[in-house]
Design brief:
- By secondary structure, the chain is α+β, with helices and mostly antiparallel strands.
- It folds into seven domains: 5-159, Methyltransferase, Cobalt-precorrin-4 Transmethylase, Domain 2; 165-239, no CATH class; 251-414, Heat Shock Protein 90, CATH 3.30.565.60; 425-502, Winged helix-like DNA-binding domain superfamily/Winged helix DNA-binding domain (Arc Repressor Mutant, subunit A); 508-628, no CATH class; 631-664, no CATH class; 669-749, no CATH class.
- The chain contains 38 helices and 22 strands.
- α11 (309-323) packs antiparallel against α13 (368-375) and α36 (666-699) packs across α37.
- The radius of gyration is 30 Å and the shape is globular.
Length: 750
């Protein structure tokens, strides 16, 4: 039993958390919950996770609290857990050892911690109740979901390394299905890559055999072109045949910054003008991608070398997208090139853990024959080294680290490669001056990135760092805690609400400007500004830390400040242009934040107590701190926009400010969040009522027929949406397409 101080802190932090992709809470007052096994299967088939028994969620407040389990109860549950794990009729495989299960005590209550690892490729799917199709689950942001028969089939297909997907012999395909010019072009690249290779003398069929594009099955005697051979060299109509890869549709798009009218300015896809096999897709797209990279002039002897480690990384990422794809999924390859990032998206799931992915050195290739074909022309590294090349190449030019994301329904892996600098030289210089060389160089690259992000963004949290780091979420937590302990960062809040700022440093100089740290901070001290800050011009007052290092002439008052009354002199720029009601306001009002300065006249006469905001409210968002002279920002990616708005939702910001920083139209933002509110608050409430009706019907001895559910769902739609919405007669059937209505009714349950 663990009762250390660290454990106590961990448990207290957990009580401030919410369930996530890696975390699940269960009350367990009645013993091991039945749903525990669904979560066990889901964690094992996805990325692993932690199940905590003994924590309950309040129905109204959604706050977590201790369920009050006794030591005897959790001991019995631990014994029952391992007993059930040994029963193959209950669960297909036991992944837990004694070290994965622990009993923890906090106050007078006991908890059972169950750390479920990700199952190995050969073990998946992990299923319950002896039925792979009905008992296999996976995890996403919404919780556990029941795998479709196709998802189960794909896991079985990936589980056998002796029968890789691309070695499948395709019956009925002949030489006529191979694009001969593609094969000839491949041979030329092969000769250039390795002029002395003995395979150059082989005829086409023999070469295809050696590459894995043609195979003879020794057991059955069956022979023919493989999936790899058709994908690499086939004609598009052969590749898209039902017996090959019917969903194959490689797609490259170049998307301009902030262009809402045109979705792309350049596109390469199977449009009938070229044989869109993988080899030709690679030849056409790679030069487009490399245009996004700087090409320094370097010499190797007398030969100019245009390819940098970053070019190698980009090529490796592109090839990985092609060779690790699951061509049996109902989606295909996609490469999106933005001005600030490149996205490689391929169907399938990661065959190794995320930690193994980041660390490199261990590779499980879904399509080893395709990998060999690319390796022979120098386009891919040996197995296990590809991801290392990607991360080291991007690091070599100081850009933010690439990071993968996984999606479901359909399964897909997206590798995001930012085209943005990790450490701005000015920021690094300022932090070096601030901390001193000894302290700065004690930090590793990831820790410097965290501090640089804190410097730029003012306030950061765990999620903010995840978006730009290759570290595992647990490692990020440890790094943040270490930086707090060592005095680099200060923390505020608890659990998921914890935020971090740079710890109070000494005076420092950046680009020759002697600017006080007190001038930079957005804390309460800054809101009752010191004289150096009060004399700043408009451009300086609205700047982030990056622009605070202005020259001495910039520190003088701007014109709007010159002609104002004495009481107005010391206020922020936004106060300069306000109404008369603001001009004569008491001093406490004059020292308040910009947000307060833009208030209506009734607020201007507020009492001092009303003017004092909490520390959370005083913190400025990036878009508030940026200089207004830069104009409108480029359009922020959708997922980043959502993260930013949600992350700072506790701080009031005008729609104009949000639109400015995200690069989004105000009408779009209004429409989007109205729809979000409707879906979350309104529609989910209707779902809960529908599920409640179903529960009560069964409890009262009634039957849940399709006709009955149609009628009840139709009534609720009419009630909730009212006469203002045109009533569609087919809306009654909508319930039948919503998966969670077929199982645990999670909306009603929660």
């Amino acid at each position: 039993m663990n009762t250390s101080g660290n454990t106590q802190d961990l448990i207290e932090n957990l009580l401030n958390e919410r369930e996530s992709e890696y975390l699940e809470f269960k009350t367990a007052k009645g013993g091991l919950p039945k749903s525990l096994w669904e979560t066990y299967s889901a964690f094992a088939n996805t990325h692993g996770g932690l199940i905590v028994l003994g924590i309950k969620e309040e129905t109204q407040s959604k706050k977590l609290s201790l369920a009050g389990l006794t030591e005897e109860q959790v001991e019995l549950m631990k014994d029952e857990l391992f007993r059930q794990l040994g029963n193959r009729q209950k669960v297909s495989a036991c992944l837990l050892t004694d070290k994965d299960v622990s009993i923890e005590r906090i106050e007078d209550s006991y908890l059972l911690f169950i750390q479920v690892p990700q199952a190995a490729r050969s073990q998946r799917p992990i299923y319950i109740d002896g039925d792979p199709e009905r008992g296999s689950y996976r995890r996403n942001g919404e919780g556990d979901y029941h795998c479709t028969p196709e998802e189960v089939r794909r896991m079985y297909a990936d589980s056998d390394p002796e029968r890789p997907a691309d070695s499948r012999i395709l019956k009925g395909f002949t030489e006529d299905d191979i694009d001969q010019p593609s094969l000839e072009q491949y041979r030329r690249l092969f000769r250039l890559s390795d002029p002395s290779h003995v395979w150059h003398s082989e005829d086409d069929q023999s070469l295809m055999k050696k590459l894995g594009g043609y195979r003879i099955d020794r057991e059955s005697g069956e022979e023919g072109f493989t999936l790899a051979g058709l994908l690499m060299f086939g004609k598009i109509e052969a590749i898209q045949d039902l017996q090959c890869a019917p969903h194959y549709f490689p797609d490259y798009r170049s998307i301009p910054r902030g262009d809402n009218e045109q979705r792309w300015v350049d596109r390469i896809y199977p449009d009938g003008r070229w044989e869109a096999n993988l080899f030709q897709f690679y030849r056409r797209v790679l030069p487009k991608l490399q245009e996004a990279l700087p090409t320094p002039f370097t010499l190797d002897g007398n030969q100019r070398m245009d390819e940098t480690p970053a070019h190698v990384a980009l090529r490796e990422a592109f090839v990985n997208c092609c060779v690790h794809a699951d061509y049996g999924e109902n989606t295909s390859l996609q490469v999106l090139c933005y001005p600030d990032r490149i996205l490689f998206s391929n169907p399938g799931t990661l065959l190794i853990s995320r930690r193994q992915y980041y660390e490199g050195g261990e590779s499980v290739c879904r399509n080893p024959s395709l990998q060999k074909m690319f390796m022979m022309i120098g386009a891919a590294e040996r197995a296990g080294s590809g991801t290392s090349k990607i991360f080291s190449g991007w690091k070599s030019i100081g850009w933010k680290a690439p990071y993968p994301q996984e999606g479901s329904k359909p399964n897909k892996i997206t590798l995001l490669m930012p085209l943005e600098s990790l450490l701005d030289k000015r920021i690094e210089s300022a932090l070096l001056t601030q901390l001193g060389e000894e302290r700065w160089y004690q930090l590793d690259q990831e820790e410097r990135m965290i501090l640089s992000t804190a410097y730029t963004e003012e306030v950061i949290n765990h999620q903010c760092i995840r978006a730009s780091s290759t570290l595992h979420p647990t490692d990020i937590t440890h790094r943040l805690q270490h930086l707090v302990r060592e005095g680099y960062l200060s923390s505020q809040g608890h659990g998921r609400g914890t935020t971090y700022t740079l710890a109070s440093p000494e005076e420092y100089s950046m680009e020759g400007a002697d600017t006080l740290w007190s001038n930079m901070e957005s804390s309460e001290l800054n809101m009752e500004s010191l004289p150096p800050n009060m004399e700043s011009s408009t451009s300086n007052m609205e700047s982030s830390r990056r622009t605070m290092g202005t020259s001495e002439p910039n520190m003088g008052s701007s014109r709007p400040n010159i002609g104002t009354p004495d009481a107005n002199i010391g206020t922020s720029p936004s106060n300069m242009g306000t109404s008369k009601a603001n001009i004569g306001s008491p001093p406490p009002n004059m020292e308040s934040s910009e947000l307060n300065m833009e208030c209506l006249p009734p607020n201007m006469g507020s009492l001092s107590s009303n003017m004092e905001c909490s520390g959370v409210n005083m913190e400025s968002l990036p878009f508030n701190m940026e200089s207004s002279g830069k104009g409108r920002y480029s359009r922020m990616p959708f997922d980043q926009m959502r993260l930013l708005v949600l992350e700072y939702c506790c701080v009031w910001r005008s729609l104009d400010e949000i639109a400015h920083y995200t690069g989004r139209n105000k009408k779009y933002l209004i429409n989007f969040y109205i729809d979000e509110f409707k879906s979350t608050l309104f529609r989910q409430t209707m779902f809960a009522e529908f599920e409640k009706i179903a529960h009560e019907t069964v409890e009262n001895g009634g039957s849940l027929t399709a006709q009955y559910l149609n009628e009840e769902y139709d009534k609720l739609n009419t009630l909730y949406y009212g006469p203002a919405i045109e009533h569609d007669e087919y809306i009654q059937y909508e319930w039948s397409r919503i998966p969670h209505f077929y199982r645990a009714y999670y909306v009603y349950r929660s």
